[in-house]
C-alpha cells in the first residue's frame, strides 16, 4: 500500500455494502476509510494500554487535507505512546454529564435529605426550593446543555455577567412577581447555588473537579430600606382604619407581629402556639434559618401573640382561612396596606429592618441587635439560663417603642427616649 497522497485518495473508489480501508506506509496506524456512500474519513488505529484495538476518527477528507490529517494522526499516536487513549477520551467527553444533569442529580439528592449543608445537617427544604428556582430560571436556560468537563472558570464568571445583565429574565409562571429580572443580587445567588451543587457533585464522585472553584461572586447592595418612625406611625393609623373596614385580621395581625418582634416572615406565619413561652418572654423555634433558637420577645409582642393565638383552635398562631395549615397571604395584605398608606418598596423583610433600625435608634449595640434578630447561635438546648436577660430587656423596649408608634403615640426625640429609659431604669433599681 503506497503513502497516502491527494492523488491516491482522490482515486479511491467505494465498495458497495462495506467500508474500505487504505493505510499509510509512512505513519503506521494512519489511514482512510471509504464508506459505501463515498464519504472518505481519516482515522488512526492503535492498541491502548490494555492492548485493545481502538480506532479514532480524525476528520473528513475535503475538510482536512492529507498533510493536515497526517500531522494530527502523528500527534494522537504520540499520545498513545505516552499511555493516552484518544478514543476513550473522546467518548468520555461526549458522554460526560451536562450542567442540567448535575443540577437534576443535586435537586433529587437534596430533596431526599441525602446532602448535608454547612451545618452538617440535611439541606433545608426552603433552601432547596430557592436553589430549584435559580436553577430552572437562570442556570439551565443559559448553560444547561454544556458539559461540566468543558466548563472553565471564565465560563462561570461569564454566566454571572449574563444573569446580572438580564439575559435569563423571563415571565414567571408561578410565585410572586411577574418577571424574573437580572441584577447583581440575582446573579450572585445563582452562582453561589451553582458553585455549591458542583462541590457536592465533586465530593460524591459525579465529576472530577468543579469549574466554579475560585469564582468571584459579584457583590450586591444589601437591602437598606426601613420605615422611619413617622412611617411606622402612619402605617399603624392606616392598619387601624383598614381593620375597621374589613381588611383581613390575620394578615394585619401578622404584620404587627413582624414589626414588634423583628422575626422573619415564615417564622411568624408558621409559629405554633406551644412555642410561645410567655413567662420567659421568648419564642422557642425548633428550626430557623440559623438552626434551633430561643428568641427574645417584648411584653407587647408576647401579649399580641397570645391574643392572636386565642382567636382559633388551630395549632398555629396565625391560622389559614381553611384547612389545618398556617396563613400565607401576608404579602398581599401588606401590599394593600402600603398602597393605601402611600408607602413604596415595603416587604416583610423591610419590617425586619425597621425593627433593627428602631433598636439602633434606642442606642442598642450591633451585637444586641444581632441577638434580637437571631443572627447569633442561640439554640433551644441552651434554654433559659443562656437567654440573656439583656436581650429580653432590649426586646421589651424595642417592642414597646414600636407598639407606641403603631398606636398613634407621638414621635419622641432621641433625648426624650434616653430620658425615659433612664427614668425606667432608675425606678426599677428603687424597687
Automatic annotation (TrEMBL):
InterPro entries found in the cross-reference section: CB (IPR044068), DNA_brk_join_enz (IPR011010), Integrase-like_cat_sf (IPR013762), Integrase_catalytic (IPR002104), Integrase_DNA-bd_sf (IPR038488), Integrase_DNA_bind_dom (IPR025166), Integrase_recombinase_N (IPR010998), Phage_Integrase (IPR050808)
PROSITE patterns: CB (PS51900), TYR_RECOMBINASE (PS51898)
Record GO biological process: DNA integration; DNA recombination
Family listed: Belongs to the 'phage' integrase family.
Domain Tyr recombinase: 222-397
Protein name as it appears in the record: Integrase
PANTHER family: PROPHAGE INTEGRASE, PROPHAGE INTEGRASE INTS-RELATED
Record has DNA-binding as a keyword: yes
Gene Ontology MF: a single term: DNA binding
Keywords associated with the record: DNA integration, DNA recombination, DNA-binding
Boundaries of every Core-binding (CB) domain copy: 97-202
Amino acid at each position: 500500500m503506497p503513502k497516502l497522497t491527494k492523488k491516491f485518495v482522490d482515486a479511491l473508489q467505494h465498495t458497495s455494502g462495506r467500508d474500505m480501508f487504505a493505510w499509510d506506509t509512512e505513519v503506521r496506524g494512519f489511514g482512510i476509510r471509504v464508506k459505501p456512500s463515498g464519504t472518505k474519513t481519516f482515522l488512526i488505529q492503535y492498541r491502548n494500554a490494555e492492548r485493545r484495538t481502538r480506532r479514532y476518527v480524525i476528520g473528513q477528507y475535503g475538510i482536512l487535507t492529507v498533510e493536515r490529517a497526517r500531522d494530527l494522526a502523528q500527534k494522537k499516536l504520540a499520545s498513545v505512546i505516552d499511555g493516552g487513549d484518544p478514543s476513550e477520551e473522546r467518548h468520555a467527553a461526549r458522554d460526560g454529564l451536562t450542567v442540567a444533569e448535575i443540577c437534576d442529580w443535586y435537586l433529587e439528592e437534596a430533596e431526599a435529605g441525602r446532602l448535608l449543608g454547612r451545618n452538617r445537617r440535611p439541606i433545608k427544604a426552603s433552601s432547596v426550593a430557592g436553589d430549584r428556582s435559580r436553577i430552572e430560571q437562570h442556570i439551565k436556560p443559559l448553560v444547561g446543555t454544556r458539559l461540566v468537563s468543558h466548563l472553565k472558570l471564565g465560563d462561570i464568571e461569564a454566566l454571572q455577567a449574563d444573569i446580572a445583565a438580564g439575559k435569563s429574565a423571563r415571565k414567571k409562571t408561578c410565585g410572586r412577581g411577574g418577571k424574573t429580572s437580572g441584577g447583581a443580587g440575582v446573579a450572585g445567588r445563582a452562582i453561589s447555588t451553582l458553585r455549591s451543587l458542583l462541590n457536592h457533585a465533586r465530593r460524591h464522585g459525579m465529576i472530577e473537579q468543579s469549574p466554579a472553584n475560585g469564582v468571584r461572586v459579584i457583590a450586591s447592595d444589601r437591602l437598606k430600606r426601613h420605615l422611619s418612625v413617622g412611617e411606622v406611625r402612619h402605617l399603624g393609623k392606616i392598619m387601624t382604619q383598614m381593620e375597621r373596614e374589613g381588611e383581613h385580621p390575620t394578615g394585619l395581625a401578622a404584620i404587627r407581629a413582624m414589626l414588634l418582634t423583628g422575626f422573619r416572615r415564615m417564622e411568624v406565619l408558621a409559629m405554633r402556639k406551644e412555642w410561645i413561652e410567655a413567662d420567659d418572654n421568648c419564642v422557642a423555634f425548633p428550626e430557623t434559618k440559623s438552626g434551633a433558637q430561643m428568641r427574645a420577645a417584648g411584653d407587647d409582642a408576647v401579649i399580641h401573640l397570645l391574643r392572636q393565638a386565642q382567636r382559633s383552635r388551630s395549632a398555629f398562631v396565625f391560622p389559614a382561612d381553611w384547612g389545618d395549615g398556617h396563613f400565607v397571604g401576608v404579602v398581599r395584605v401588606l401590599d394593600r396596606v402600603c398602597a393605601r398608606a402611600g408607602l413604596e418598596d415595603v416587604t416583610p423583610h423591610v419590617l425586619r429592618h425597621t425593627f433593627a433600625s428602631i433598636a439602633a435608634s434606642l442606642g442598642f449595640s450591633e451585637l444586641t441587635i444581632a441577638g434580637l434578630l437571631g443572627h447569633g447561635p442561640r439554640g433551644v438546648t441552651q434554654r433559659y439560663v443562656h437567654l440573656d436577660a439583656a436581650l429580653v430587656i432590649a426586646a421589651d423596649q424595642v417592642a414597646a417603642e414600636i407598639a407606641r408608634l403603631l398606636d398613634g403615640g407621638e414621635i419622641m426625640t432621641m433625648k426624650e427616649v434616653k430620658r425615659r429609659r433612664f427614668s425606667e431604669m432608675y425606678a426599677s433599681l428603687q424597687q
